[in-house]
Amino acid sequence: MAAPTVTVVIPAYNAAHCIARAIHSVQAQTLQDFEIIVVDDASLDETCAVVRRLAAADHRIQLVQQQRNGGPSAARNAGLARATGTWTALLDADDAYRPERLERLCALGTQHDLDAIGDDIVLFDDVAGMEVGEGGYARKPGLQRVSLEDYLRTTTYRVGVAEALWREDRPISLVKLVMRTASLRSTGLSYSARYRYCEDFLFAYDLLRHGARLALLNRAMYLYTEPLGSISRRSSPHSRTVADRQSVMDAVDEILARDTSLAPAERRLLLQRRRSTEMAMQYSAFRHDTATCGKAELLARVVRKPELWCRFVRELRHGFASRLRHKRLYKVADASVPVGA
After folding, report:
1. Residue 181 CB contacts under 8 Å (≥ 6 apart), including other chains
2. What CA–CA distance (Å, rounded) separates 214 from 116?
3. pLDDT by residue (tens digit) across 222-241?
4. How far, in Å, CA of 170 to CA of 242, rounded?
5. Residue 206: how many CB atoms within 10 A of its CB?
6. Predicted confidence (pLDDT) at residue 337 exceeds the cutoff of 50
7. What is the rounded distance in angstroms from the CA atom of residue 306 to the CA atom of residue 329?
8. How far, in Å, CA of 237 to CA of 235, rounded?
9. Higher pLDDT residue, 19 or 174?
10. Sign (positive/negative) of CA torsion 197, 200, 203, 209?
């Protein structure tokens, strides 16, 4: 039997209520020459039962069961090791593809002789049940080549006293790559099982350090479920993402310690990412303390670190804008429903 064009690896943990959506989005692809490898990471719910029912009706679906929970990195590694497709694509269990995604990316990857290719993401508020925008990663029209410095620049926040200098955009490491399987095998790379957060950042960094030719398409075809909905402002019941900023700092420290031949710009961007992550941790503590400390102490903290106060004001403004947008979007959605439906 000929190898499929693409292998889709789906790591899953307690995903019984959303795994079918992810699988159905692959089955609905315009490119039908695929295999799906679902790696169950020792789920405690009915995830395996759901996948088995779907696999019984579609021979292209495989279920791999981990004996113990090892986190998303270990689950992805198990799937990558079993991939037989020319291309290997990643899909999280709470996310989905738009129908043309695999055909478009695999064709462009082949045409431009790429080792990896990604696209923009569609932000999906699970609680509100609606798409709420795009990530805005690939800002240039068409296909954009990404160097290591480009990648580090788009995963690093700028920190400063002025509110406009603290950019809390979603990092490009959220982009899920479609990778040439032979190129992946030749590097010998795998996800670091040490990390359950920021593992995508470290993996893509290592790909680029090994000379991978990577490009981003200015088209959003990956539906990313926000851990905290930007419209509903409520946590998704399906997302397993738990922010661990210490892991980000540890990953940066690991890179700086092992890669002594980094270009000055690359080292500067890594240090900047570490600093911005440290600032975010300080802000979380500041945000918690504002509810308990007295006015005099609060004023003293603002004087010592005015950038934290700028971020606090920005958050309040963002929350107000989100509530207005929430009402407007729901009003539009309600108006589109026929009377009596």
Report:
1. 7, 83, 84, 85, 86, 87, 88
2. 5
3. 999 987 777 777 777 666 56
4. 15
5. 17
6. no
7. 34
8. 6
9. 19
10. negative
Reading the block at residue 292, the tokens are: 């308990």
pTM beyond 0.90: the answer is: no
Q: Contact at 8 Å (CB) between 240 and 126?
A: no
pLDDT at residue 329, rounded to an integer: 53
DSSP code of 166? -
Say how far apart CA 146 and CA 117 lie, in whole Å: 10
Q: How far apart are CA 273 and CA 177, in angstroms?
A: 22
Of 122-131, 248-257, 300-309, which range is least confident?
A: 300-309
Give the least confident one: 174-178, 190-194, 295-299, 336-340.
336-340
Per-residue DSSP letters for 133-160?
EE-----SSSEEEE-HHHHHHTT-----
> Could you say which DSSP state residue 176 is in?
P
Asked whether 196 and 110 are in contact (CB, 8 A), the reply is no
DSSP, residue by residue, 234-295: SB-SS------HHHHHHHHHHHHHH-TT--HHHHHHHHHHHHHHHHHHHHHHHHHHTTTS-H
Q: Please tell me the distance from the alpha carbon of residue 168 to that of residue 148, in angstroms, as a whole number.
A: 21
Which helix (H) or strand (E) segment holds residue 111: the answer is helix 101-111
8-state DSSP, 196: S
Domains of the chain (ranges plus CATH)? 94-248 (3.90.550.10)
Q: What b/e sequence results for 70-80 when a residue is b if at least 16 CB atoms lie within 10 Å of its CB, and e otherwise?
A: bbbbbbbbbbb
CA 113 to mean position of chain CA atoms: 24
Least reliable range by pLDDT among 59-73, 120-134, 173-187: 120-134
- Rounded CA gap, 72 and 252, in Å? 19
pLDDT surpassing 90 at residue 14: yes
